[in-house]
Design brief:
Layout: E1 3-7, E2 10-13, E3 18-25, E4 33-39, E5 46-52, E6 58-60, E7 68-73, E8 78-83, E9 92-99, E10 113-114, E11 118-123
Parallel strand pairs: 2-11
Antiparallel strand pairs: 1-3, 3-8, 4-5, 4-9, 5-6, 7-8, 9-10, 9-11
Amino acid sequence: QVQLVESGGGLVQAGGSLRLSCTASGRTFSTYFVGWFRQAPGKEREFVAIINWSNGGTTYANSVKGRFTISRDNAKNTVYLQMSTLKPEDTAVYYCAAARSVVVANNPYEYDVWGQGTQVTVSS
């Protein structure tokens, strides 16, 4: 079973950038789909982006399209979420998650493994 560890969260001003990392241990990501979700206080967990590790295919939520980029580093067994032009409404705990197969990318119940989350706070 793969274990996931996120890092890279923090406090940033609106318009700034952050890069989140999700590193796998125990197994490689080679046959997985890896997604990023976020959850703000009092709100449901929200899909952000997903990458197919095998072919690099990506999908984004409309709310982050054009501002966020998901990518992978095979050698480091790590998935990144580069976040730019951040807005206060991007403030949330960000989680990475992995699944062997995904039918509906934005359905959190399709993901088998979750990291512990990393806080991102965007000040206005």
